[in-house]
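FAQ: What does the model actually see?

It sees only this:
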Amino acid sequence: MSSPRELEAAEYLEKHKIIELMDNLTSMLFFYRPDRPREFLIDQLEKLKVSEVHPGKPPCLFNESNLDTLFGVLDPSHQGSITYSQYKEALKTLGIKNFNEFPEGASDDRISQETFMREATEGLVGSAATVQL
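And it is asked to produce this:
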C-alpha cells in the first residue's frame, strides 16, 4: 500500500506530466546525441516554454519526414492507405497516448496517408504541448 506522501508525489508527477517530459527529453538526447547535452536540454526546455506562450509546434522528436517514412514502411505496396490496426499501433509506437480513436477511414479499415499524417502530427504536438513547466 502506498503512503500518503507517495500518492502525493505520484499525483504531482501526473499533474505536471513530468514522466512524459523526461521520456521526451531522454529520447531526444539519444536520437540527436548532442556534443553539449546540458545546453541541448536547456534549449529544448526553452522552446517548450515559448511554445506554451506562443502556440505553435513544441519541440518534438519526430517531424513530417519521419512520419512520411513510417507510413511508407506500413504501406510497402504504395496503396495509399494502412489498416486501422496499423494506425493505432503506429501512434502508440510514436508515444502518442491520446489520439483520435475514430479517424476518417476507420470504418472502412483504410486510413489514408493524409489522415495518418494529420492525426500523428496532432498527437505529437498534443503530447509535447501538454507538458507543464
